[in-house]
Prior knowledge:
150 residues, mainly alpha, 5 helices, elongated
Amino acid sequence: MEKEIKRIVRRLWVEYLLxxxxxxxxxxxxxxxxxxxxxxxxxxxxxxxxxTAVVLLTLCAIPASLKMFGLVxxxxxxxxxxxxxxVSYQRWSEIRLALIAIVVFVGLSVYYTTLSxxxxxxxxxxxxxSFFCLPGADxxxxxxxxxxxx
Length: 150
């Protein structure tokens, strides 16, 4: 069981770091001029729509991903047998991180294409929310209520 837990935590760490590295790559590509900055900066309607969309995405996806994960852990995953619970934990952790990653990538794209700080702020909020997704063996055991069963 411990070997499986370590494998899952290692995989979640790789995925977590990948989100941060991809966010850094997006920033570097825009800053290096590989991707075009300010593509929609002078079209007021598109800027407004993109900024509104990224704010709504952030307001919906971040709380939903964090709250959904807690509810799923509490009501469904923690009552499964340990082997099934581990697989389900990994799947739901990946879903939660994917929702946060979408906000980060969309936020950075809106930031650089509209040259407005709203997208950057949304991406920053999502990156800060990703700290709640930090994987760990003790955290996994606690959330699956495996720590008292040992």
